[in-house]
Amino acid sequence: MYSDIAHRKRALRAELRERRQNLTSSERDFATAGFTENLQSLVLDLSARSISCYLSARNEPDTRPFLNWATAEGIRILFPISREDGLLDWTVGDGDEEFTGISGVPEAVGTLLGPIAINDVDLIIVPAAAVDESGLRMGWGRGYFDKTLGSMEKCPPVYAMVFDSEYLDEVPREVHDQPVNGLITPTRIIAF
Description:
By secondary structure, this protein is an alpha/beta fold. Helices cover 31% and strands 22% of the residues. It has a single domain, classed as NagB/RpiA/CoA transferase-like (Rossmann fold, 3-Layer(aba) Sandwich). Helix 2 packs parallel to helix 3 (64-72). The radius of gyration is 16 Å and the shape is globular.
């Protein structure tokens, strides 16, 4: 059973990676504008003054225009920093500096705040490979966000960012997989 689910996840991730790589620059620009507008709307609707958000990698939904807006609005932003033990530390970041972390994705540079810093935010924005109609999030297989979300006693709303085609009827589920409260695509915000 476990190997069947793991195999289905690997196959689905490969398909989704290929779709993302095949997006045209105009499709990416359209998506970025939609993501930015919908993230701004969500933050304003929730009156969030402190959020956590990831720095997007090349083929991920682009978070940078939104992060620039949030910074200009005075919203405190915590960025994840991956650790060898599979957990996440957090930083508020220092300017525009970033590096490639052990997870292979961009990470902010700044003073490490430790894993519990996430407990003080009003909204958590996470990357995802796909989200299904029940709110189950499938990540990229490293488990950083599943471990973080699964360990929180009092979790604020968690929204995953996916392209419209990555909102699926169902994704393969393993015991450790954590659901999200909603998702953001370029064309909509869905709360579960």
